[in-house]
Write a structure and sequence with these properties.
Strand order of the largest sheet: 1-2
Structural class: mainly alpha
Distance between the termini: 26 Å
Shape: globular
Number of domains: 2
Oligomer: single chain
Low-confidence stretches: 307-324
Number of strands: 2
Helix content: 55-70%
């Protein structure tokens, strides 16, 4: 019986880290989010909250607390081990990421206007809508980067990279898999298309690379925030969603949806694809030149506090290693 229990425990619990293995940790997080999100959205509906207010409520009440609590209680990670930007170097990543993300969308709008594919009319900012859009896209950038990159990518890389020699391949696989999941999360947004889903999957890689190369989420959060906020201000749909706060009115001229993305926004068009590719090529050298070696080298490894447990009479007998 004891041997059976030890075998069952080994299936679920990592023998040296003494915590749930990576697949079960990720399942716990998704389960907590699902369970907490249902009553929260019911409340938002009963309270007749606006789309932005409902999204902010979901972020504050469900998504961010769930990620942080599960990471702390189940993963036993510190904030830094999730990639949370806590240093001046990481803050610099937030800045250049936001500028680059906004600049890429600004370039898309300039090309649309110059080629006669879309018309832009100045409306001017509304203080209330401006504040809400800033809050909304800051929260979206933080929670999506924490979820897909900080938590899921890190756990997948740990689970797939059982030895130092497989860590690079594990990071590559984790980046691709989480980017695919990032695209799936947008599949039920309004007006999706094959090109839009392809672009969002590639955007997941674009957003993940600074995290993988730098070891912190500063640049990834900045890129995500600047990209989404500029779409909103320029009157574009953001991943298919129309969000209040536009500074200009964007009118797509007939026959140009392939280039502009149509009702899905810039992310659904060829210009959006070009912006993702160029942004990736620009962000890689920036991330490499400004990375924190001590953080980037830790990517895909267990938390420092759990990597070398103390030996003792009560320590479990290690079974063959299968990764995280």
């Amino acid at each position: 019986m004891n041997e059976l229990l030890r075998t069952i425990a080994w299936i679920f619990v990592h023998p040296t880290e003494r915590r749930l293995r990576a697949p079960y940790r990720m399942f716990v997080l998704l389960l907590v989010i699902a369970v907490a999100a249902i009553p929260t959205m019911v409340f938002a509906g009963l309270a007749h909250l606006s789309g932005i207010a409902a999204a902010l409520t979901l972020n504050f009440v469900v998504l961010l607390p769930a990620i942080l609590l599960v990471a702390w209680l189940v993963d036993r990670r510190r904030l830094a081990e999730l990639g949370v930007p806590t240093t001046p170097r990481a803050a610099l990543g937030l800045l250049w990421g936001a500028v680059l993300g906004a600049g890429l969308i600004g370039a898309v709008a300039s090309i649309e206007h110059s080629c006669g594919w879309a018309r832009y009319e100045w409306l001017g900012p509304s203080p209330g809508a401006l504040t809400l859009s800033l809050a909304l896209f800051a929260m979206v950038a933080v929670h999506e980067e924490l979820l897909f990159r900080g938590y899921l990518l890190t756990n997948l890389a740990e689970g797939l990279g059982g030895t130092p020699t497989t860590r690079v391949l594990a990071l590559v696989a984790a980046t691709v898999l989480t980017s695919f999941g990032f695209a799936l999360a947008h599949l039920f947004n309004p007006n999706p298309s094959v090109l839009a889903m392809t672009n969002i999957g590639l955007a997941g890689i674009f957003l993940a690379l600074p995290f993988v190369l730098r070891g912190d989420l500063g640049a990834s959060i900045g890129l995500h925030f600047g990209w989404n906020l500029m779409q909103c201000w320029l009157g574009m749909a953001v991943s298919g969603n129309e969000v209040e706060g536009a500074w200009v009115r964007r009118t797509i001229l007939p026959g140009n949806d392939l280039w502009t993305g149509g009702a899905f926004g810039a992310e659904g068009g060829v210009l959006g694809l070009g912006a993702v590719v160029i942004g990736t090529l620009v962000s890689i050298p920036l991330a490499l030149s400004l990375r924190d070696p001590s953080r980037s080298q830790a990517m895909g490894l267990p938390p420092a506090s759990r990597a070398t447990p103390k030996a003792g009479p009560g320590a479990p007998i290690a079974a063959p290693e299968l990764g995280g």
